[in-house]
Amino acid sequence: MVHSRTVAELAELLGGWSVGTGPLYRKLADALARLINDGALRAGDRLPAERSLAGALATSRATVVGAYEELRGRKLIERRQGSGTTVAERVATPVGDGRVAGGRATAMFQRLIDGQGPLISLAWAAQGGSAEVAGALDEVLRYDMTQLLADPGYHPRGLPELREAIARYYTELGLPTSADQILVTTGAHQALVVVAEVYLRERARVVVEAPSWPACMDVFRAVKAELVSIGLDDEGIRIPELAATLAEQVPALLYVMPSHHNPTGILMSDARRRRIAELAAKYGVPILEDNAYAGIAHTESELPPPLAAYAPLGVETVTVESLGKAVWGGLRIGWLRGPVEIIERCARRKALADLGSPVIDQALAARLLPQLPDLAAKRAVEQRARLDQLEQLLTERLPAWSWRRPDGGASLWVALPEVHADVFAQLTLRHGVEVIPGSSMDPTGAHDNYVRIPFTHPPEVLTELVQRLGRAWDELCRHGPSESAPLRPII
């Protein structure tokens, strides 16, 4: 069976194909050959026409023609009258694709596996761990190990001490919580996966913000759910559209990031949280709130309680959070807070996946939880200084770009004037920067001219980053997306 790869799909699979030295046509040929050998492209798959692929990759048609000729010489693809260019039938299909499969987050996950190399990658808004992690680890080794080693070590719901600490954390935020409402997960990503498995079935509808983070949307797509996108204003998800959608479509889940939304950095207002909770109660829609960046604030605005605190009795609200942004992503500790019966269902799926997260990591997290507000505030001060630096650099080097200063979080959501960000992202690769374009975060097309620029890199890297972005922008403005035609290989 012949499968036609769309231009967008193939561009995503190719990822950073243009990085490195050598002619572009050969680098493109090598990247396509890797996809074929890994099984991401299979025997009989139809490849896009040369002109279409050239447009998506911001290169010349001659580059794609040269790459296809190279692959024909290697007997990896073939051209048939009426069938276009396809992967050769003689190519053996591997048992499984060794590369990351999935949706719009595929290239980002593959970058983690491959390593960043010479690129400055903007795929991840994360930085190194807080110094307090070392002190807490020393306390675990000194005072907790005897008790931990006396225990069998299997806690599918989470280490009791950590669950108690998380429950106290929410109670102090104005959301009374007991330990049996908490499930510890291996990072926030696993928490989202578990919730999707509990709530969603094939063709179930999930209301999401537009834009949103592609890895989160891919979690829902993985269970074959359908996404319904609703835009944002300066207070969060737009209420008129949300009300109409809930009334017409009866979604299985409403997914929002109320506290410093990723990628816009918007802090959802107190009034907006209350209105969302009222609508969820009226239409019987469960809420999944993701508070990954909750404590990373860049304004003096007081952080409202979690959205769950506004939910009327009977509204199912599940809160996802982690230590990843405020403390350290390497700790891989996240959690769910929700109704006891929902947490029980999630715990059963968590147990099937891994029987529980590592106990020593959880003991370390239990030591750190009481410090979480202070650690988040400290991280926010560091990132605010980098935000100021990035805004100044962009204003000086790229004055045509525009953005709204984020209320919190770790990135700028930047609009490029009259340019499709997918094309610009291909050019930035050749200048040593991996950019995630807006099309990855909003399937509606409303943010195709946007890019997300994290400011979690060290100051000297931010300076170099803006210089590279500036050179890529100069090339685009002066010469357009195409390169001069390379010499065609003689096979």
TrEMBL record:
<keyword id="KW-0805">Transcription regulation</keyword>
<keyword id="KW-0663">Pyridoxal phosphate</keyword>
<keyword id="KW-0238">DNA-binding</keyword>
<feature type="domain" description="HTH gntR-type">
    <location>
        <begin position="22"/>
        <end position="90"/>
    </location>
</feature>
<keyword id="KW-0804">Transcription</keyword>
<dbReference type="GO" id="GO:0030170">
    <property type="term" value="F:pyridoxal phosphate binding"/>
</dbReference>
<comment type="similarity">
    <text>In the C-terminal section; belongs to the class-I pyridoxal-phosphate-dependent aminotransferase family.</text>
</comment>
<dbReference type="InterPro" id="IPR015422">
    <property type="entry name" value="PyrdxlP-dep_Trfase_small"/>
</dbReference>
<dbReference type="Pfam" id="PF00155">
    <property type="entry name" value="Aminotran_1_2"/>
</dbReference>
<dbReference type="InterPro" id="IPR015424">
    <property type="entry name" value="PyrdxlP-dep_Trfase"/>
</dbReference>
<protein>
    <submittedName>
        <fullName>DNA-binding transcriptional MocR family regulator</fullName>
    </submittedName>
</protein>
<dbReference type="InterPro" id="IPR051446">
    <property type="entry name" value="HTH_trans_reg/aminotransferase"/>
</dbReference>
<dbReference type="InterPro" id="IPR036390">
    <property type="entry name" value="WH_DNA-bd_sf"/>
</dbReference>
<dbReference type="InterPro" id="IPR015421">
    <property type="entry name" value="PyrdxlP-dep_Trfase_major"/>
</dbReference>
<dbReference type="GO" id="GO:0003677">
    <property type="term" value="F:DNA binding"/>
</dbReference>
<dbReference type="InterPro" id="IPR004839">
    <property type="entry name" value="Aminotransferase_I/II_large"/>
</dbReference>
<dbReference type="InterPro" id="IPR036388">
    <property type="entry name" value="WH-like_DNA-bd_sf"/>
</dbReference>
<dbReference type="Pfam" id="PF00392">
    <property type="entry name" value="GntR"/>
</dbReference>
<dbReference type="GO" id="GO:0003700">
    <property type="term" value="F:DNA-binding transcription factor activity"/>
</dbReference>
<dbReference type="InterPro" id="IPR000524">
    <property type="entry name" value="Tscrpt_reg_HTH_GntR"/>
</dbReference>
